[in-house]
Amino acid sequence: MANLEELKKRLYKEKEAFGERMISPELARSKRAKAFFWHETAREVSRNGWFLWALVLVFILIFLGFLFFIFGSPTIFKSQKVELKIEGAKEIKSGDRITWQVKVTNNNSDTLEGAALVFNFPDGAMPAVGAKPAGIFRERRSLGKILPGESASENFDAFVFGGRGALKEASAVLEYRPAGGSAVFATDTSFQFSVASAPVTVSFKMPGDLRIGQRVEIEVDYGSQAAEIVPGLSLMLTLPDGFEFISASPAASAQNKNIWPVGNLKPSQTGSIKIKGIVRGANLESKVFKAALGILNEADNSFLAYDEIMEPAILHAPFLEADILVNDQQKYIAFPGDTLSFEIRLKNNLPTEVKNASLEAKIESADGAADLGSIRVEGGSYSESSKSILWNASTHGAFKVLAPDAEDRVTFSVKVKNNLPLSSESLRPSIKLSVTFNPGGEVAGFSGTDVSGSVALEIKVSSKLQAAASALYANSIISNSGPLPPKTGQETTYTVFWSLANMANDVDNVVVKSSLPPYINFKNVIMPADADISFDKASNEIIWKVGRIPAGIGFLRPAIQVAFQVGLTPSQNQVDTAPVILNATEVSGRDTYTDQILNSGDGPISTDLPDDPNIGFSQKKVVP
Question: For domain 200-316, which CATH number applies: 3.40.50.300, 1.20.1530.20, 2.60.40.10, 3.30.470.20?
Answer without folding.
Answer: 2.60.40.10
